[in-house]
C-alpha cells in the first residue's frame, strides 16, 4: 500500500519504502546499543524526494542525512558533516549495517 498524509503537498511513499527505513533504523540502533551500550541518536524522519524517506540526525558535533530510496533495490545515499572540515558522502545497502554510518553517529 501507499501512505499519504492529510495535506495535498505531502508526497506519497510505499509501505515497502517505509519498512526499509524502519529496518535500517532497527539495524543501526541495535548495533549502536551492542557496541556503545547506549541508545542510538534519533533522527528526524521526513518524506524525501520522489517517494523516498529522509533520515536526518542533527547532533551537537555533526549531522547526517540518509535517503532511503523509493526503489527498495537501489542503494541508500548519505551525506554527513561535522560542521567543520570533515564530510562524508556515499551510498550503502539499506538492508545491511553500514559501519561508516554507525561510526559517524557514535562520535
Commentary on this structure:
With 107 residues, this protein is of the alpha+beta class. The chain has helices at 15-36, 99-106, and strands at residues 2-3, 13-14, 44-47, 53-58, 63-68, 76-81, 87-92.
The total count of helices amounts to 2
Low-confidence stretches: none
Largest sheet: 5 strands, antiparallel
The overall average pLDDT, rounded, is 89
Percent helix, as a range, is 25-40%
Beta-strand residue percentage:
25-35%
The chain-level structural class is: alpha+beta
Q: What's the total count of β strands?
A: 7
Summarize the structure.
By secondary structure, the chain is an alpha+beta fold. Helix content is 28%, strand content 30%.
List keywords for this structure.
alpha+beta; 107 residues; five-stranded antiparallel sheet
Element layout with pairings:
Layout (H helix, E strand, L loop, with lengths): L1 E2 L9 E2 H22 L7 E4 L5 E6 L4 E6 L7 E6 L5 E6 L6 H8 L1
Antiparallel strand pairs: 1-2, 3-4, 4-5, 5-6, 6-7
